């Protein structure tokens, strides 16, 4: 996979790796074991931001920052704020910002240690002010607590959803995105009803992109794009197929999105 690890950059003496994304467009320090390691979900999420977008982007629950870095790498006129509550993952993001290989995009990326679910004064004091951003992206934990458990607490925190999670995260997004700003998220299809419920009175003009492994299978993810304070109706968008037919290689479209060559919008 072109966004995956380059062993020459593996810092094997530490519990971390330096992974290459966008075919050298940016480099990401990630946990070697323990915690969440980013891959295609983060790249697809970043693909919801148009390449010519200008403004301030916030990546909520950013982990090590893969989706936010992907947006900064492809979109040259954005400033990206990564928001993450796990101090260990924030440290990885800060190391990535400091890498010489990221010098071209690092001035446009900053990171905040904060819980996405903070409210009111606490949220603002953490640096998440009302109407401060033009576009929010999020890859919240979307595994059920009843799915296979992991003894890794840091990984569990990144993967397992809490009660009312979408309500809490989308409430924060609605507060910090300016009116007519945008929200993009990736989730499992079974979460759609909960997401739409949390959008009520906050977001409209909802566009849902089903993501399938192959054309003969059910969707395994949904990408959701919505506009703050819009009353426009929901639209079901063309599906994305990760693989063509029975081939193991990525489809040309998904490969281009994975590697920062285009956004989803350039395909429709």
CATH superfamily: Vaccinia Virus protein VP39
CATH-scheme architecture? 3-Layer(aba) Sandwich
Mean pLDDT: 90
Reported by name, the CATH topology is Rossmann fold
Total of domains: 1
Order of helices and strands: EEHEHEHEHEHHEHEEEEH
Low-confidence stretches: 1-13
Task: Please give the count of helices.
Answer: 8
Overall structural class, as computed from helix and strand content, comes to alpha/beta
Task: Give a topology summary.
Layout: E1 16-21, E2 26-31, H1 40-46, E3 54-60, H2 66-74, E4 77-84, H3 87-98, E5 109-113, H4 120-125, E6 133-138, H5 153-159, H6 165-176, E7 177-187, H7 192-199, E8 203-212, E9 219-228, E10 235-236, E11 240-241, H8 252-258
Parallel strand pairs: 3-4, 3-6, 4-5, 6-7, 8-10, 8-11
Antiparallel strand pairs: 1-2, 7-9, 8-9
Helix pairs in contact: 1-2, 6-7
Give an overview in words.
This is tRNA1(Val) A37 N6-methylase TrmN6. InterPro entries: DNA_methylase_N6_adenine_CS (IPR002052), SAM-dependent_MTases_sf (IPR029063), Small_mtfrase_dom (IPR007848), tRNA_Adenine-N(6)_MTase (IPR050210). One of its GO terms (biological process) is methylation. Keywords: Methyltransferase, S-adenosyl-L-methionine, Transferase. This protein has 268 residues and is α/β, with parallel strands linked by helices. It has a single domain, classed as Vaccinia Virus protein VP39 (Rossmann fold). It has eight helices and eleven strands. Helix 2 links the parallel strand 3 (54-60) and strand 4. The model is unreliable at 1-13 (pLDDT under 50).
């Amino acid at each position: 996979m072109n966004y995956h690890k380059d062993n020459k950059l593996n810092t094997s003496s530490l519990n971390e790796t330096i992974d290459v994304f966008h075919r050298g467009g940016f480099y990401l320090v990630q946990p070697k074991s323990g915690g969440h390691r980013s891959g295609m979900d983060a790249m697809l999420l970043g693909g919801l931001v148009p390449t010519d977008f200008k403004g301030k982007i916030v990546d909520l629950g950013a982990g090590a920052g893969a989706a936010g870095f992907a947006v900064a790498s492809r979109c040259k006129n954005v400033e990206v704020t990564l928001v993450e509550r796990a101090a260990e993952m924030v440290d990885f993001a800060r190391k990535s910002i400091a890498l010489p290989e990221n010098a071209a995009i690092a001035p446009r990326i900053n990171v905040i240690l904060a819980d996405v679910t903070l409210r009111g004064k606490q949220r603002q004091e953490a640096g998440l002010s009302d109407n401060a951003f033009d576009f929010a992206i999020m890859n919240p934990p979307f595994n059920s607590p009843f799915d296979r458990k992991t003894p890794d607490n840091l990984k569990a925190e990144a993967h397992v959803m809490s009660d009312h999670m979408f309500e809490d995260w989308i409430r924060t997004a609605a507060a910090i995105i300016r009116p007519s700003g945008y929200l993009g998220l990736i989730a499992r299809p079974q979460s759609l009803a909960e997401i739409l419920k949390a959008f009520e009175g906050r977001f409209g003009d909802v566009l849902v992109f089903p993501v399938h492994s192959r054309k003969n299978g059910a969707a395994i993810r949904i990408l959701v794009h919505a506009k703050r304070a819009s009353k426009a109706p929901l639209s079901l968008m063309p599906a994305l197929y990760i693989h063509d037919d029975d081939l193991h290689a990525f489809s040309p479209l998904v490969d281009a999105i994975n590697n920062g060559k285009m956004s989803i919008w350039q395909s429709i």
